[in-house]
Amino acid sequence: MRKRNYTVTIRMNKAEYDLLQSKVKESGRTQQEVVIKAIADLKIASAEEVEELKKLNQMFADILCQLRGATININQIARKLNTDGLLPNDNVLYFLNKNILKYRKESERIWLLIRRLISGQIHMEQ
Predict the structure, then answer these.
(1) How does DSSP classify residue 46?
(2) Backbone phi and psi for residue 8, each to the nearest 5 degrees, phi listed first
(3) pLDDT at 17 over 90
(4) According to the model, what pLDDT value does residue 94 have?
């Protein structure tokens, strides 16, 4: 008696079919073995996991945008100081120090969030 009693028919476009055939050829297995092995080893994400990953991706994109903005501001400050060739007065130094501390604090908060997200300590509701 057969162990596999079910037949599944699927449709593929040319690129998908060619990819399957290349996997069959390089593995030396049958099409059936390649497909069964692929689905057995593949973790299929739930709809909730997919949505969570989308949110995580958006959070990382937002974080990168904020970091880029801070980096641009710091570069503009450094460029201004270098091109003027003047020593900044106390007011300018106070302003720069205040902004650098603000960027540093914000970047530390961002990296803490990233670490917590990666370690699974927090979820995507934030």
Answers:
(1) P
(2) -125, 130
(3) yes
(4) 83
Closest CA to 57 of 103, 117, 101: 117
* CA gap 53, 58 in Å, rounded: 9
Q: Where would I find the H helices in 6-122?
A: 14-27, 31-41, 47-84, 90-119
Tally Cβ neighbours within 10 Å of residue 42: 8
In contact, 99 and 73? CB cutoff 8 Å: yes
What is the SS3 assignment for 16?
Answer: helix
Residue 1 three-state SS: coil
Nearest-angstrom CA–CA distance, 13 and 92: 63
When pLDDT is averaged across residues 9-22 and rounded to a whole number, the result is 94
